[in-house]
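Lab notes, practical 5.
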Amino acid sequence: MRKMLVAIILFVTLDSAYLMAAPTEIVITMQNDVYEDYLCLLNGRNPIQVNDYSGPCSRRDVVEIVLFQQALFLGGLSAKFKFVPGNYSLRNRRLLETGLLLASVDTFWLAEAEQHSDYLLISEPMILNGEYTAGVYTASTNTKMLAVKNLQELQQFSAVSSKNWTADWDALESLKLIKLVDETSWTSQISLVKRGFIDFMLAPLNVKFMIQEWELVAVPEIAIALKDSRHFVFSKHHPLGEKALEAANKGIKLMRQNGTIYKAYSDAQFFYREDFNLRIINP
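Output from the prediction step:
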């Protein structure tokens, strides 16, 4: 009971801080590890001036923080951003719904964003439909999975994902596997595969599972296409929501035309499949 009371007090205090923030200061919340890697990627640089998005801390969700700011700036919205790190993976949805959070700097799948269109405004796509591909990850000791070369062979195995990840879940359902398990926790998914209870999971192709001692490896030569686009989302209930969406769309259009979006994701090894010529095996 005491822990719940403390959590409520902290939530109310944070909400009050949002409401008292200066109109020109945009508060953005994110997970601690993403914020730390964002600072590592910047390495002291002004995010608006970044044109090299590569580095040891570069990955899709980190690069998108930079692209988000660049899109708004190019679209004509000049504002100071205040980033607040913490445990926000579940709370951000509520903050967007209430209008206390302007936007998510981590893009949403279109299908997922449309489910919440009562309070979300959806930008033009950052990642186009068909561009997002995932690796098939299994335990380093699962020799049978590591030998898979095509869809027919993959269908003899089990997978784990979350129904909350609409594109991942839809892709896995289309494979017609012998078993598909719904597990909302990323770390629990890893544990199930690592311990051999489930054969594989999907993950970005440049995830360093072995370096993080999670002992999962990608099945060589194959990849799975996630058939949806990804977008920045803005709160309909934030006073800057409409203005920010308009600016973002203008900026995204310019950045797609001049190649910035492709370069940024490429620097983050997002187009790993193309670079290493992996085969898409799902229908």
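Observations recorded by the TA: The two ends are 50 Å apart (CA to CA). Residues 2 and 8 are 10 Å apart (CA to CA).
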